[in-house]
Structure formats: C-alpha cells, structure tokens
Amino acid sequence: MSMYCGIIRRSTCCTLAIHDLESGPSMNIRKEFLPFSRPSIGEGEINKVVTCLKSGWITTGALCKEFEDSFCQLTTAGQAIALNSATAGMHLTLTALGIGKGDEVITPSMTFASTINMIALLGATPVFADIDYGTLNINADLIEEKITSKTKAIIPVHFAGAPADMEKINQIAQKYNLKVIEDAAHAVGTYYKGIHAGGFGHIAIFSFHPIKNITTGEGGMITLNDAVLEKKLRMLRFHGIERDAWKRYGKGGNPSYDIAQPGYKYNLPDMLAALGIVQLERLQEFNTRRSKLANLYLEGLKGISGIELPKLPGYDHTHAWHLFVIKNLTLARNEFMNKLAEYNIGYGLHFPAAHTLSYVREKFAATAGTLKETSRAADKILSLPLFPDMLEEDVQYVCSAIKEIMKHG
Ligand SMILES: Cc1ncc(COP(=O)(O)O)c(C=O)c1O
Hints:
Layout: H1 2-12, H2 14-22, H3 43-55, H4 62-75, E1 79-83, H5 86-96, E2 104-108, H6 113-121, E3 125-129, E4 151-154, H7 166-176, E5 179-183, E6 191-192, E7 195-196, E8 203-207, E9 220-224, H8 227-237, H9 245-249, H10 270-281, H11 283-300, E10 307-308, E11 317-318, E12 324-328, H12 333-342, H13 358-368, H14 372-378, E13 381-384, H15 392-408
Parallel strand pairs: 2-3, 2-4, 4-5, 5-8
Antiparallel strand pairs: 1-9, 6-7, 6-11, 8-9, 10-12, 12-13
Helix pairs in contact: 1-2, 3-10, 4-10, 5-6, 5-8, 11-15
Pyridoxal-5'-phosphate (PLP) binds at residues 85-87, 111-112, 114-115, 157, 183, 185-186, 207, 209, 220.
C-alpha cells in the first residue's frame, strides 16, 4: 500500500512530482502517518476504568489512594500525592515551600515552559544553569556559580528519561541549604545509581500526560519524604480543605469543613487513577520496549553525516527513554521537519529553550546568562517518534528516511 501512496502523489500533483524528482522521497512512502507519540491503552486499562465508572464513585477516592501507594513503592518515597497535572504539582510545591517575590530558583532553560511559568507567576525569578550538550541534562558543575543569597531551590530535569547527576546536585543543595525539586516528568522508570527518581529524599514531580511513559490522560504525582509538607500539599490540592470529598461524604463522614489557607482544585479523579494503576503495572513492559526501540535508533542512525545521537550520562543509570532527541547539524529545523512530514513521520520539539521565550527575555534578561551549550543545542534538536506500540519496522523506516533526507538535503 505504501508504494501506491508514493506513486499517487507523483502522478496527481505536477509540482510535487517535480519537487520529488529533485529532492523528495525516492523510497516508498508509508501511507499511515507515524505519530511522534501514542499512548498504549489495553483491555486492562479499559476494564479498570469501566469498573470505576460503574462503581458510583468517580472522583478522588480509593483508587487514587491505591495509585499513590503504588508510586511510593516504585520510588521508595514516604508519601505520594496524585494531581491532575505535573504543572499543578510544581505550582503546589513552590507555593508550599513559600517561594515567591524576591526568591530565585535555579533550573535549566532546556525544560518545559510550565516550570518557568509557575516560578514567574509566583513572583520569583528563574535563574538558568547551562546544560551538558550531549545529554541535554543540567550541568551540575555549573549550578554553584548561579547561587546567590536569594536562591531557594534547584529544579533539575531528568531530561528525556536520563537522570540528572543527583549526587552532585544533592551535595550543592546541602552545602547551601537549598531545596531540590526533581522535575521527574520524563522519569517514570528512571534510576540513578540504583535509586529511582523521587527516591533521594527530596520532592519529585512526575507527569502522566498522554505522551509520557505512563498516562492517566492528564495527571501528575508529587513524591516526598516529609509528613508535615505532605499535609500542606494535600490541603492546597483541594481548596485548602483538610479532608478529601470521599472522606467527607463516606459513611459516617463529616461534610463540614474549615479553611485555614485558600487552596486550588488539582486533585486526580478515580476514573483517571484507574487508568494510572494499570499503566503503572505495565511500566516494565513499556520501558523495556522503549529501550529496545531507542537502541534500534542508536544503531540505525549511527554514522549518518549531519546527525548527532543522544549521549548517555557517564554514571550508572537506567534510562526511561521517554524521548529520543537527535540533533541535525546541517539542515535548518523547519526544513528537516518539512522533509519528515513528506515521509509521513511525526516529530516533537523538547524544548524551545525557555530563556528565548518572549516574556522570559523581557522579564528575566538580566538573569538569563549566556547558556552557551543550551544555545548550541537549541536550534538543532528534534524528537523522533518513540512509543511502546511502535514497531521495529517503524524505527527502520524513520532511519531510512533520515538517511535519504540527509543524503539529498
Ligand atoms: C520536563 C517537563 N516538566 C513538566 C511538564 C509538565 O507536565 P504536565 O503536562 O503534566 O503538567 C512536562 C510536560 O510535558 C515536561 O516535559
């Protein structure tokens, strides 16, 4: 079928035909679009969600608690708090730690904008530390020089599923009495020297957005080891009310409440936790598959002139392979994306460097710094399709397409 698709394109569009003859695809173009990511949802997930729907309780309740407990087991953290996004987790964490006006938070610029947004919305200042060009992870050796008397926290990102250098980061945090908030959005299944993300005694925040290693549709989880902070976060998660709805409306529950500090509405409903419980049971299966596909990419793209492959951290780790990010050294990214689209291949961008976003440039130019390696990588990066249901042939197809693009490009 894919062969016919290529032929039809050539025979029905004169411009395309000329273009194709000059520089377009000469291999057979797949008929079906290969998305950048797609969640893997099986009968187990569907059954669990349906059971929840039929149970009479669909918002935050026993399933959410079960999901939280499973996360404590995975990460070895003492507490876990399920939320409707990781962004909500960052908002609650920064708020609960009292971070606001006049405070500085150190983070890489190579991160999702949500972190910077939350820092900025609370009136604090993001201070960017440069990354390691190869791994795109924060360069722990460049954190200390960013610390001032205003610094309150460091937010490393376990980029693409490879852990940041937690030993070094922990040492710096201890020396200057700073909080560490692990951005573990990419890190379900990430281990640093045998310790899962979230297992270092700090706060960690995971994401269950549909492209993540496990999904709840939308969702997130804070893990921590601090029962006092846990209580505060749980209240902030739900209006500032001490008891969740299921405790107030259950048999013998007390529906009245008091609010000592106003909170938000960031709880994860049981319908979504149901999905998360089954997804988490499948984590090993998912990440084994991701790892296999990533290794096929590493092999298949090796030696292609103009393409740089992701580097692995030098320390002992388990990569969750949330993303497979390559760098194109010769083609402008727009051109590269257009070419991939011609081959029916999807892609992602992780990330537009945060220090280049309009409002960040306007508001925080003074603290942005030079960020040499971030800038060097930012224009070249592109994330290739990677998801558990992707086939080996799909990876081979992407590798062949990139080979062809780079030959003619
Ligand atoms: C590094 C990073 N941090 C935070 C987030 C925010 O996650 P969520 O969409 O669950 O709010 C994302 C989401 O893509 C991310 O990639």
